[in-house]
Amino acid sequence: xxxxxxxxxxxxxxxxxxxxxxxxxxxxxxxxxxxxxxxxxxxxxxxxxxxxxxxxxxxxxxxxxxxxxxxxxxxxxxxxxxxxxxxxxxxxxxxxxxxxxxxxxxxxxxxxxxxxxxxxxxxxxx
Length: 126
What we know:
Keywords: Membrane, Transmembrane, Transmembrane helix. By secondary structure, the protein is mostly helical. The protein is built from two helices and two strands.
């Protein structure tokens, strides 16, 4: 015989058919933990971090393209300067450094100035 004071606590649990049946507490299954509520706020369509990475990639590519274009323009200008303008600058400098005798076919280095003046006077005897 079991006395009332010797009995452990009794809990009511649902059985397989949904009816509540008594069961000693130490034999009852552990209670199901209550899950924490989920965050149901809508997420952005595109991830902001991914957007920053894409923006940095596009911006970096545009920067690299612009720098490459500028360097190409500078190098092509230098190539044109070397083949065209520097040649003319060298020819002008060479012409300025040549002595006067070489220009006048070695004519003893004398300078002759020829001045021809034509004076025509009209007289009207009328």
